[in-house]
Amino acid sequence: MPAMTVQDRCDACGAQAYVRVQMEAGELLFCAHHARRHLDELRKVATHIQDETDRLHAEERQTQAIED
Questions:
Q1: Which of 32, 55, 57, 68 reaches 20 to 30 Å from 5, CA-CA?
Q2: Are the C-beta atoms of 30 and 19 separated by less than 8 Å?
């Protein structure tokens, strides 16, 4: 499964998506906030969950290093 890019947007709010949920009927993309909010329900219907939220922390560390 390919990594998500800045072109991938949350189906709930339009923010950058970091979580892809594949289901029998298709897929949904979520930002970290909405993925966390709906994770329990998504697990019930998902065939696969691609979670790239760890990239958020890496991006925060990189930004902090630049600012320091």
A1: 68
A2: yes
> For residue 58, what are the domain limits?
19-67
Question: Which tokens is 24 given?
Answer: 């029998």
The position carrying tokens 């219907």 is 45
* 37 Cβ contact partners less than 8 Å away, ≥ 6 residues apart: none
Question: Residue 36's CB: how many other CB atoms inside 10 A?
Answer: 12
Q: Is the pLDDT of residue 4 over 70?
A: yes
Using pLDDT thresholds of 50, 70 and 90, give the confidence band for residue 1: confident
Q: What angle do CA 33, 36, 42 make, to 5 degrees?
A: 125
Distance CA 11, CA 13 (A): 6
